Amino acid sequence: MSPQLNHRKSVDDFARSHEPIVWSLFGAGGMVVAFISPWLIVITGLLLPLGLVSEDVLAYQRVLEFVQSWWGKLFLLVVISLQLYHAVHRIHHGLHDLHIEGPPVIMATLFYGGATLLSLMLAVLLVTV
Amino acid sequence: MASNDNKTVNRRPYMARPSRWWWTQNSFYRWYMLREGSCLFVFCYSLILMTGLLRLSQGEQAWEHWLQSLQHPLYQVFHVLALLAVLYHAYTWFKLAPKIMVLRIGSWTLPEQAMILGQWCAFVLCALTMLAVVLWGGM
Lengths: 129, 139
Description:
The complex is a heterodimer.
Chain A: H1 11-16, H2 19-35, H3 37-47, H4 60-68, H5 70-97, H6 104-128
Chain B: H1 27-57, H2 60-69, H3 73-100, E1 104-105, E2 108-109, H4 112-136
Antiparallel strand pairs in B: 1-2
């Protein structure tokens, strides 16, 4: 076997190995933002304040029951954390587009780590509520 | 030894770095930046939702107070802009999907337009499902 073919342990490969995970989260987040976020924004941010529905729709007891159900917890965890991963991926690349750069490892840790930290906080919140 | 002949200069030429405002130069890049910028609304909206959940966990009064704060005109402007941002994201996302994933059955390829239309149908279905659950869902 030629030595040139044996390059699997190069630094470059390790650096690249995170990309599929990050991209899957970004892609799944893109689906959520396209299909679900518009209606979530309408429901929580526009229907009630614009007086289009009765206040009972987001009444405390009703929302609490939803958040305390396992499907409610699952829905909120998946939707909000994928929104976060999607957003930080674009912010990360957008800053690069604007020539705002830092050491790559620190920038990646800051953004993807930040989204992970927020998702963990959200999970704790959902479990305890 | 390298010759001094101009034609055989053996190094990468100096390339001036484009300005950080390169994307303002034409409309394609401006729309690109707008699409990328939509994520700022998504990020802020996620934090708003998380704040709501925190308030919910703190009891009825905190929840009512949070709902009240959403009535503020600034919040309403934010939500309208956020809605426009995610709708533009959806438009670009649906257009991109058939280029990333080409669906073939035998020698027949699903036309791009059909796939885009299919996604818009799913989009409407999501809307109807979510609104039905929120408005009439027995919880």
